[in-house]
Amino acid sequence: KAFHISGLLFLWTIRFVQETDRKIFLLLMQRKWLLMSESLKYMRIETKRFIIRKMKESDAEALFAIFSDAETMRFIEPVFTYEKIKKFIKEAGLCEEPLVWVLEEKKTDRVIGQIIFHKYDDKRYEIGWIINKAYWHLGIADEVTKALIDFANENDINGLIIECASTQEITKHIAKKNGFNMISEGEILVFERLCN
């Protein structure tokens, strides 16, 4: 009987340790995400030619030039008005945890695009880009994608997601070139790359 009790006590101790470890792990993960969210408020990434930084209200004119162009917005949504751009900057770029950032050219300090980088779910972040048409076909999206992959690896982000329309051939090419695998298809394609 004493052996039976000690055996039960041993099993109970193991379960207690496992449950305690699980709770500690969950707390550490929550802390990690809180710290990540805090660091993202001040995110700034530099590539060879560009800076990804937080939006400012003064970026409205440059972003309007991009978002008011029908060809640029063909796969995204209807073109923006200037008022919609100002609202968008406030609600998506200047919020507590920004969803979008600007892409600034180093040599001119000119805003030439918008970068998408935000939580997709508890483990992954979504990335994307909208580039001023005058800067297409210069390898910018590829350069930015590689920088965001490096940032994700450095900050223990588990994975990255790219979503695009099934007809966006360039986006599909960049996703595959940078190690993303298609995980969902249809009108909207979803590509995933695991990090670390």
Could you describe the 3D structure shown?
With 196 residues, the protein is of the alpha+beta class. Helices cover 42% and strands 24% of the residues. The chain is built from five helices and eight strands, in the order H-E-E-H-H-E-E-E-H-E-H-E-E. Strands 1-2-3-4-5-6-8-7 form an eight-stranded mixed beta sheet, with helices on both faces. Helix 2 crosses helix 3. The longest helix has 39 residues. The radius of gyration is 22 Å and the shape is globular. About 3% of the residues have low confidence.
Compressed to H and E, one letter per element, the order equals: HEEHHEEEHEHEE
Structural class: alpha+beta
Radius of gyration: 22 Å
- Identify the overall geometry: globular
Could you give a short description of this structure?
This protein is 42% helix and 24% strand.
Which SSEs are present, and which pair or pack?
Blueprint: H1 2-40, E1 45-46, E2 50-53, H2 60-67, H3 82-93, E3 100-105, E4 111-119, E5 124-131, H4 140-154, E6 159-165, H5 169-177, E7 181-184, E8 188-194
Parallel strand pairs: 5-6
Antiparallel strand pairs: 1-2, 2-3, 3-4, 4-5, 6-8, 7-8
